[in-house]
Amino acid sequence: MAPNDSAQITGETGETGDVPAGRRRAARYVVPVAVAGIAAATIGLVPALAASGDPDLPKISAEQLIEKIAASDTEQLSGTVKITTDLGIPSLGSLGGLGGSAAGALAPKGGADGGGSAAEPTGRLMELATGEHTLRVAADGPDKQRVSILDSAAEYSLIRNGDEVWAYDSASNEAYHATSPADAAKGSDKGSEKGSENGEKGKDQAAPKGLPATPQDFAEEALKAAGDTTSVTVDGTARIAGRDAYQLLIKPKQDGSTIGSIKVAVDSETGTPLKFTLQPSGGGKAAIDVGFTKVDFSKPSASTFDFSPPKGAKVTEADESKAAGKDQAHKAPKDAKDLGTEPNVIGEGWTTVVQLDTGGKGPGAVSKDMPAQAEEFMNALGDKVDGKFGSGTVFKTRLVNALMTDDGKVFVGAVTKDALVKAANEAK
Description:
Distance between the termini: 20 Å
Number of helices: 11
Number of strands: 18
Structural class: alpha+beta
Helix content: 10-25%
């Protein structure tokens, strides 16, 4: 959804109204539908994270707190992040080891079974989309970051140091190496012609982008536009990872969204989000809950971002993996172009639905190309529905639902089954 600079914001005092022009830069950070994008690759957190009493902080309005987040210039930090996601789908963390199960049939294969390096980042980071995980994170500016996923007896690390990107899986003793364009760290898609050429050449070798791993990542996605479909308030204070924080509460005003509320705990001193919790409208525990249990805003040691493959480690170069076709296991199928026309966006705000046309490939046609276990897995998620649009199947999670009609149209959004059927009925 495009940002709405004239969004209404409800502050702690209950005041509402158009956001002043001078403050639109901050206001554009707040909203909903981006969360559907997050949910597609989602990560979540455990609800109770080192909270110990509610600190007494000066009063602040929702608008002021949004501005505080937007003005935050935190570039150096280290700490531990707890992530738990409950989208109502099977855990992806152990898919590869489930043999003949439906989940195993859908899992990307790596390492010894011929699908590529076990250290290749895309598949490993997708494990964060389900279950509970502990991460150790560190950052020193835009070109030095480290994220390590901690298991009981192993560790997976993704390290960026300038234009060098390394991933290492201690369980398999495999490493994956890529180079990233120099200007990519700065988020630049412009610049010199040479920089653009380097960016184009190196883009497939760089580490995957866009998968949130910290509360700030999630908050930035959720706080992108403020509209009159959204209620934003300050909901008290909290103590997170030993830091005093304000709690920003974001709720949809529309019916039909699967998102009940989003709560962002914001560090009172730095404006850095410390915790992100997404509660589904259907109730129950949080679907996404990401938060620091420990955080330090001092400069991490330079050695944090140093990496050399251990002796005996198998090293896979990104360009070699691509040339061998081994990195395709985590990418869209070759016939993805058959999805046909450009997406059609229906509705606005929290109840936005995106319509795609698969060119006549409805559930029946798609199932012919699926392994039996995968088809069983998909059917377990689906509900048969019908309406003015015809008939189809709704595939559901706790957040993002999709309706695939028998004539090959797909309607997807962070909306309820009824809202999907309504959108399909009203689609032209």
